[in-house]
Amino acid sequence: PPQIEEFFAAGDRRHQAARRRRRIRYGIALAIAAIIAVPIVGMTTRYLTRETLLANNTGTMDLVVIPFDWAGSAAVPSGIAPLAQLSLTLHGAGNDLYEPGEQLPDDVIDVSKPVDVGFQRIQRIRAPGGTVFLRFAHRGRAGETCPASWIRIQAFPGYLTAKIRSIVLWVPTCAATYANTAIVEAGPFLYGGAGEPRSSHYGKNDYTEVERTADLPTFHMDRTEVSNAAFAPFTTAASVTGYPALVYPVASETSVHLHDADPEYPASGVDAYAAAAYCAYMGKRLPSDFQWVKAARGGLTVDGKPNPHPMRLYPWGATPRPECVNDENRRDPYGWTAPVDALACGRSPYGILNLVGNVQEWIARDGQVDLHNPLHALRGGSPDSPPELEHTTTIFRNARRPLSSSYSNGFRCVIEPDEAP
User: Fold this and answer.
1) Through-space distance between the first and last CA atoms of the chain, rounded to whole angstroms
2) Cβ–Cβ contacts within 10 Å for residue 289, how many?
């Protein structure tokens, strides 16, 4: 359409003006270098080098943003009209390439004013090539607030990419962020210990946490593990984010893995970094160890009433119920994993499903109790956990390499409302 062509032409004019300003700065810097002492010459040379690198390694892309809600109860994205207050900022990488750092200064980027066309919001972006994090804030409708959504562009096109790329990103609304979550109310709870009934494995490796009372503010947790359907929008820009669609082994009609890729089954084979990145994309994060245990056991009170089993060994209570957990006992009808909303009898005091069994769930790295352990923690046990080892309990904690992509690994996310929008 003519308005989009004019929008891109205006961006090009701004880019040319920026290049003219850089040339003027080069001239000023050279004049200074000619008349000032040697130390200043060195500073000017470094300045010129920086300016040249910025000019040469600046790439351009046309960003197409589609805000989405989930369609009904199904985890299917449904595009909505662009949100008036939706804002975008660009950030560099932090201490590693998986975490965002400081916001990029205005003199190294150029973000055009958005043009809304149907469900799409289009912006032309110029920024240094390499890793760039996009931060989408104000994702709510009138009166709605939620934390920002973060998306890593692993390979922002630099000067070696002559062609301007169009990148389509589906960005969740606040409604999408809070959909299918349960509130875990503020207050004290019991962490660690041998559980109720007392675990015969307590004191062994992976069952060692000392019983203590801890306190947490209110948070939201996903009511189910993240499903394949819910994970799918995150992978639509895999060519630049580095997070591709999940791939499952081809299974025969008789294989226990026949349904692993079905939309309602848990996203599995996900490493810790991809799990954390998905949660950040949804405006969430992986749960801490304390958050996971409280969600599974409940607080000292639940809904204003005393918790009858605050030390419970199982999310549903203090009595083993093999039919309520998907582990190796095979009392359930599932060969490997089960749909994320299956086995309702295994829900926790807050109505959260499958905290034990089905897939073991990644814990946030900065939320681990044993931060000196180079491995990353997982909770809940998996579909091949032998019942006699009590992996599918509230006290067992596993640990694996963060890049482990076992098909027994899955995850869910939490929302911490105190985070900035």
Assistant:
1) 34
2) 20
Query: Residue 108: how many CB atoms within 10 A of its CB?
Result: 16
Q: Write the CA distances from 354 to 80, 105, 265, 301, 400, integer angstroms.
A: 31, 44, 12, 21, 20
3-state secondary structure of 250: coil
Q: From first to last of the 421 residues of the chain, give the pLDDT tens digit.
A: 555 556 556 556 655 655 565 555 555 555 555 555 445 555 666 655 555 555 557 888 999 999 999 987 778 899 998 898 999 999 999 988 899 999 999 988 999 999 999 999 999 999 988 899 999 999 999 889 999 999 999 878 765 555 788 899 999 999 999 999 999 999 999 999 999 999 999 999 899 999 999 999 999 999 999 999 999 999 999 988 999 999 998 877 778 888 999 999 999 999 999 999 999 999 999 999 999 999 999 999 999 999 999 999 999 999 999 999 999 987 778 889 999 999 999 999 999 999 999 999 999 999 888 888 889 999 999 999 999 999 999 999 999 999 999 999 999 999 997 665 5
Query: Please, are residues 59 and 164 in contact by the beta-carbon 8 Å criterion?
Result: no
Q: What residues does each domain of the chain span?
A: 1-54, 57-172, 180-421
pTM for the full predicted model: 0.86
Chain mean position to CA 341:
21
HEC sequence for 87-152: EEEEEEECCCCCCEEEECCHHHCEECCCEEECCEEEEEEEEECEEEEEEEECCCCCCCCCCCEEEE
Going by CATH, does the domain composed of 57-172 fall within 1.10.357?
A: no
Distance between CA 396 and CA 405 in Å, rounded? 20
Give me the architecture of the 180-421 domain, per CATH: Alpha-Beta Complex (3.90)
- β-strands 77-79, 397-400 pairing: unpaired
